[in-house]
Write a structure and sequence with these properties.
Length: 438
């Protein structure tokens, strides 16, 4: 890997770190404003919806100039959303603006990998980027939680004389500090090298843009390799969003954990994803990327097996680690969640790499990532809606987990069946690694 790649990774880490820290600060700000409780989960919805609504244009924007410059400009939009939240803008509106920046940032972040690196290094690159993204999510949540603590926030208010600006809330002190993380990311963005890749100029005409975007979607969904990798990543991100909330409810139901303890179990899943991503980067070359598909079925089996587990099934007692008492039930649950995360990380990283490669070959880097983001985030919105419906129907937590695990297993089984059927008609695996078409 060259220096440009590590510069991109640093910029991505800092930007994602700020996004996740800002989410915690935004929740704290809503609380301080006595906002209705239903507004808190809307933060994620307002952030994600830009990926769907702007999908037809963010790819064009990402390909309109060197991607390092795109990453700088879109990070600036994120910083503007952060500052709007700081100086009186409603947290939902402000975080939606951050989401606009993130939606436009993503095609440049992933697209530049295909411009900078040869196809055989894309799995390794995706292992890095997924591992660092997971790390930034965990550390971002921790950073946001630390910054809103009175013993940290009050010195920030005092040292920078924020009261003179009309800022007195601890959440506002946290947002002020997070703005500097965005500034650091912007400075790193300026150091990203120009890869020299240039694409035919495209117009932002609404009708033409949407038509071109739909054509790109059709092209990728009809490609024998693209449709498989896009199906898997779309399923992964939708299932992952549900799993975030399902883990919290399962921890409460099966282990008697409160919200903060359940959030730690969420982090345990993320650690597993990071481990799986690293293993995939080390063990799975791009040519063998399709061999990881059975790991998706294994992930569904693990979730299904944990559906009816509770602390009464585990032996009494436990272990003392670093001053904490961990029951055997908690340890078993943590091991299971790490295993789920490892399966997820191990199969999604090669699929991401294959999808980026096929998109780069069939169209431009930015347009292909925009198609990917559109499908993945539409899946998130849809599956969260279905999950909300299951809750409204008052399904028990074990039943919901069974439905979720069975859905993942059946979906991955259908993807594998489709791949084998494609292969029986035409061997498409020799296309992996081919040069970009002109």
């Amino acid at each position: 890997m060259n220096r440009g790649f590590y510069t991109i990774m640093t910029a991505q880490f800092l930007s994602s770190l700020a996004d996740n820290a800002l989410l915690i600060a935004a929740i704290a700000l809503l609380t301080s404003l006595n906002a209705p409780e239903w507004q808190t989960p809307l933060l994620k919805l307002f952030f994600v919806v830009s990926y769907v609504l702007l999908a037809a244009w963010v790819g064009i924007f990402a390909d309109s100039m060197p991607k390092g410059r795109v990453m700088f400009l879109t990070n600036f939009i994120k910083a503007c959303g952060c500052l709007l939240m700081l100086f009186g803008g409603h947290p939902l509106l402000a975080y939606a603006i951050v989401g606009v920046g993130a939606a436009a940032y993503s095609p440049a972040k992933y697209g530049i990998l295909t411009e900078l690196l040869p196809a055989e290094k894309l799995v390794v690159a995706n292992g890095w980027i997924e591992g660092l993204t997971v790390g930034s999510i965990i550390l971002g949540v921790v950073l946001g939680g630390v910054l809103i603590k009175p013993e940290i926030a009050q010195p920030i208010l005092d040292i920078f004389h924020l009261n003179a600006l009309g800022l007195s809330q601890f959440a506002e002190a946290a947002i002020f500090a997070i703005a500097f993380v965005y500034l650091s990311a912007s400075l790193v963005n300026l150091a990203i090298p120009d890869t020299g890749a240039r694409y035919p100029k495209q117009r932002f005409d609404p009708v033409d843009s949407i038509r071109g975007f739909l054509e790109s979607c059709i092209l990728l969904w009809h490609d024998r390799l693209g449709q498989i990798s896009l199906s898997v990543t779309t399923l992964f991100w939708g299932a992952g969003a549900v799993l975030q909330f399902l883990v919290l409810k399962w921890c409460d139901h099966a282990l008697g954990m409160d919200l903060s303890q359940g959030a730690v179990m969420q982090a345990v899943v993320s650690i597993g994803i990071a481990i799986g991503a690293i293993l995939a980067a080390a063990k799975v070359p791009l040519k063998k990327s399709l061999s990881v598909l059975p790991m998706g079925i294994l992930m569904g089996i693990l979730v299904t097996c944990m559906a009816y587990f509770d602390r009464s099934m585990a032996p009494e007692g436990g272990l003392s680690m670093f001053g904490f008492e961990l029951s055997w039930a908690t340890i078993i649950a943590a091991v299971a969640m790490v295993a789920v995360g490892i399966c997820a990380g191990f199969f999604v990283v090669p699929m991401n790499a294959l999808l980026q490669h096929r998109g780069h070959v069939l169209m431009s880097a930015g347009r292909s990532i925009a198609v990917q983001n559109f499908n993945e985030n539409l899946s998130i919105l849809t599956m969260l809606g279905v999950y909300s419906l299951l809750i409204k129907l008052d399904l028990s937590v074990p039943t919901t987990m069974l439905v979720f695990g069975a859905f993942v297993m059946i979906s991955m089984g259908l993807v594998i069946f489709k791949h084998h059927r494609n292969q029986s008609q035409y061997d498409s695996t020799h296309l992996i690694g081919e040069a970009k078409r002109h």
